[in-house]
Here is the input.
Amino acid sequence: FESIKKMRLLFIAVAALLVSCGSGKNVFDNKDNAFKNFNYPEVNFINKAEGTKGWEIYNRIVPDPVALIQESSLGVVKTLYWSDADSIPSVKKINYSFEDKRGISAKGGSVPEISINHIKLYTLNVNDLRDMKWEVKYP
Here is the structure.
């Protein structure tokens, strides 16, 4: 009998603790509203692959590279911070270039201006379409 009383008391204590610890509001429910004042960086898109097979594939998957980079920057901020009131480094400009050649993609620079070079040789095959969708994280 004594153990049942202890269990009941423990249950009541835990329930009271859970009720008192929060408002019952899930912090993720209002995630988009938490970033309503987010300042999107200026995106300078540089297409170094105009007329190539790689550009044809990329353009089919990513019709608006500037929007992709801006939405991706917001996605990174949402992952790392709780709201736009946090101390978020202010990236003012992103130079984003696309090249269809053998090479290695790279990121350079630092706040307030960074550069992203998307470099890869593409051909028109199914694997390239799948790979590019994964690489650029585009739905």
About this structure: The two ends are 59 Å apart (CA to CA). The chain is about 40% helix and 20% strand. Residues 41 and 92 are 5 Å apart (CA to CA). The beta strands are 42-47, 93-99, 106-110, 113-119.
